[in-house]
Amino acid sequence: MSVSNATPQSGHENAHSNGKASKRPQTFMFIDSSQPGVNLKPDKAVRSFVMHQARSRRRWSTRKPPICPEETPDTEEAPESAVKSVRRSPKKNQLRLEEISPVSYSVDYDASASERESRGSTSSSSPIISIHSGALTPPRSSHGGRGGTVALRDWFALGALDPFGCLPVPTDSTTSALIDHFVKMFSPRMLPVDLHQSSNIATSQWLSGALQDTSSGKSITYAILCSTALHLHLMGASTLDQVLYYKTLAISEINSNLSKPDTSVADNNIAAVFMLLCMEESMLALSAADPHQSKDDLDWSEKQKLVHLNGLRTMIQQRGGLAALATNRCLQVFLLMHSIAHSITSFHRPYTTLLDGSGNPCTYDTSSLRARPSSRALKPFKDLQLDSNLIDILVDIIIYTNDLATWYCDRRCLLDPLELQKHSSLLMYRLFDWYDREARNRNPLDQCICLASLIFVVRTSHPQDDSYKTMALTAVHRLHETLKKTSVFRWSRAPDLLLWTLTMGGLAATGSTEMEFFSHYCTTAFADTGFHEKPTSEELLDKMKSCLWIGKVLDADARRLWTHIRLVRGEGDEGLMEGFKVLDVERGHDAVGLLTRNRFFSKR
Fold it and tell me: Where is the composition biased (Polar residues) (predicted)?
């Protein structure tokens, strides 16, 4: 191999002879690969050349940096500045909060809403929230903080949910405590059939998935914060400013998502609109009960509710219906429950429902713990020669009732409460759909069984909530009118079903003007029950168990009802009447809002 005139060794010697002044800078060196034994370990000249080239390009040193800051080289300032920038990052995040605060941020929304909310707000300062645990601290900002200073984010304070800033919205100890409050107070109440609160699916799947969504998660997160702030406000632990603050941010993010094709009808954007609708309905029900509320305020609230409802309906339609939300089971069931509740309270078609591929309502095909109902269970219904399609629905209701009774009695039952809640709504819809189709041509006796079954499913799917009566109020009115068209002699083949029908109507009519009719009718129909004298409540309960019945939910209420109308003997003590409550259930148009308010926004 031919090399240059100066080998590494000769170059090294010339450098000593000529001196540093006459040395010519060397830009490259050749290594003779033909002599592997010589060049395996570079000599001192090669090492010096490499080190010299490295130093000439960038100054560096292998020595340890001195301890004194005055002797620190200029090149060591980079790590210090990086630390400073990390420390300043919370300040930047707080400034971002100020930029989107309600004081300086406007939302592309109904102008009347802002005026209405500003009238309800007593101060423009930053909302302050505090609860007895001390986990919630006042948010500080330039328009409401202490001395106009910007507070650092207390990441590792007790109760901090997102110490590394992974959530779609900025978080601090206040927002962390609000989300924690939502998990503890709202999530356990989302599935009414979960009597033992043994399922955490609403938290582990729906809520966690919503909070981790970086594309459309801001809208649902702010809606969650708004609903929690509203609950605390009704408890006296927060201000209205806190509610309006998060509501403004939620609406802003919803509008922002609507302008993007990939997030306009995303799961979390639909969920955010749904949560705002539920809050509007609950507040409307609360306002309607206040005699001091003006008609203008109620009309304004009604318009806002319709805006959210129409928007939600359109978004679900554009998404492809509830079936398109199959990957988000919790949201699908929540929307189904809400839609069917509106349908049952008004007896109008639901704004959305869950249909199979042929467009028919889904049947109860969940793996049941029980076999198909025996002929004994169906005998009283078949004795009345009911419509065959109604019998098919009743077969599924009997299976569902057996599963639900097992679920209520055994907390270790393997049934899925989310599926049970879904099918309770689907069974309600199937009964309503049967009743609504050709209602004028239906047999009145068939209609009575259908309406009583509807009340039964509504009651048993809300085991701990007396406000179910508002949801069943329209069915009670229609049952009253249908019973008047039906001769008592038509019930002669199944007198127990007549008593069961009247019991279902009487339970749902408690507290309303319909109660008198059912009390009188029960007394009249008692003559055909086969008893020569007043029975005990246990004797009547044995008859009820041959019909649709869940003892854990209905036994105590039935005893109180029968005692109240003097249908049974030996149980007239005052202690038995303690659970007999008279509720104001005459406001049918506020029924869904009242259900939401009692379940999520009550002071308990």
Answer: 1-20
